[in-house]
Design a protein that fits this description.
With 397 residues, the protein is an alpha/beta fold. It is built from 14 helices and 19 strands. Bound molecules: cytidine-5'-monophosphate.
Amino acid sequence: MEPSLKRIVMGVTGGVAAYKAAELARLLVKRGVEVRVVMTAAASHFVGAATFQAITGQPVYADLWDARVSNGMAHIDLSRDADLILVAPASADFLAKLVQGRADDLLSTLCLARDCPLLVAPAMNRQMWENPATRRNIEQLTEDGVALLGPTSGEQACGETGYGRMLEPETIIEAVDAFLQPKILRGLNVLITAGPTYEAIDAVRGITNRSSGKMGYAVARAALEAGAEVTLISGPTALTPPGEAQLVNVTSAQQMLEAVEARTEETDIFIAVAAVADYYVLNPSENKIKKDAHILTLELAPNPDILSNVARQDTAPFCVGFAAESENLEEYAELKRKRKHLPLIVANDANAAIGSDDTELILLDDDGRHVLEKTDKLTQARRLIEHIAKLYNARYQ
Ligand code: C5P
């Protein structure tokens, strides 16, 4: 959780998903956030105030005229000092009230009187979600600057399956975290390559690199969180790409090169995270090669260096490379940075980084080295994006 998030008002409205709000509150408290729960009357039919009070260690509010608030103005007092208001679950009715700016209970009044961001996690039956009235309301809320977290598609309490299911508490926390990231790349087009490439030997076999794609996908996510338009060109991976990225799936290095070159002109920042195979097979067989007792010789030809091709152009975008090395890490990475004409290269230990969730990164640029201590790849990606934004701004603004 972002250290800047200290105190939130958590609104709970009437819906079956209200029982998950208790878990959400627990996870927020566990991350050191002070949570003040405000329930609507309908919410109390699904979950009791005592649950939230026990979990948050704070009084729970439901009444506009709560006598515990010394100045009698709970609607102003409660959200003062709050970093944000998060309504989860947000019912169809509550969203409609927000659109109209109604203030007939404590939570809606708080939302109207707020001077902090408002995030809502809708939860409702799929037909309610698809109803034109809800569609209009969602459009209006987005226009009004309310951040929507979900919903997602899946099984619903009514037994139907479809859109309207509230995001899981962990996912809501991730979405809140993403929302809080500074929008330092707003208005910029970022192109990212990720994953391995696969060079066919025959119909079923190929040469590839050990790369999970985790780092590249994390960089794509961090760039999106920073407000960039992101195109992710990905070799074969088992990962789910971030929904808001424009995804281009490729297999071979040649396809990756073509996909990159088709987009270079409109790109402001190019981050090459992909582990591109150094060679491809000159004459791959269309059919499966039959096994026999003889030695099989493959003819390999070097693949084009995608990053170098882009970086040497006169109107090259700001180019960032990755260097995974198993020895002499920084020395080899710096040589690579010079050879490829890159303002920045990210060095990481090939043996430690591949497939793992945590990694240490060393950033090498004209100013020297910057060590990003070992932690999860999304945090590292956010730190990297911060560094890139600094260098980019220094160069172009
Ligand atoms: O030369 P090396 O493969 O170690 O360079 C690594 C960096 O260059 C990475 O950023 C990688 O994505 C990029 N690269 C590339 N095309 C290649 C080989 C590497 O874009 N054919």
